[in-house]
Amino acid sequence: MIHYITGGERSGKSSYAQKLAESLTPKPIYLATSRIWDDDFKKRVDRHISDRDDRWTTVEEEKWLSNVITEKQTVVIDCVTLWLTNFFVDTKYDIDEALALAKSEIDKLTRIDAHIIIISNEIGMGLHANSESGRKFTQLQGWTNQYIAQHADKAIFMVSGLPLTLK
Which superfamily does CATH assign the domain made up of 13-165 to? Predict the structure, then answer.
């Protein structure tokens, strides 16, 4: 089952996903997709880690998520935006190639018999990006979010800490 949770920055996505995972299993897995880009980001990662107790196992994987998820697990993937950034940078900002890689990996996730909780950001609802690469990434994120939402069994939109059920 794919649970898709999206919303703006600091909308409550991660805490909602954690509570959902904890309600589904006594031993959830947190799949971190981020690269540590700088000290500020490292502090953010450390804060997320401290939010989880010893029931949680943390796994780090920057791109090939389906390689580390096995049957019957409950996994929180946090987050699509950072995951896509890895594809976008590694493909030298090629939207089509990055999108194809992301879609292929999402397709693989849908075939795993597990509770997979995917967290993403709705970045296209804010300011218009200043740079061409920023605008390209916003498009990539939007198309990927649509693809995940179409393939998800359940979809939640978080606003101000409140979940709105989309499907």
Answer: P-loop containing nucleotide triphosphate hydrolases (3.40.50.300)
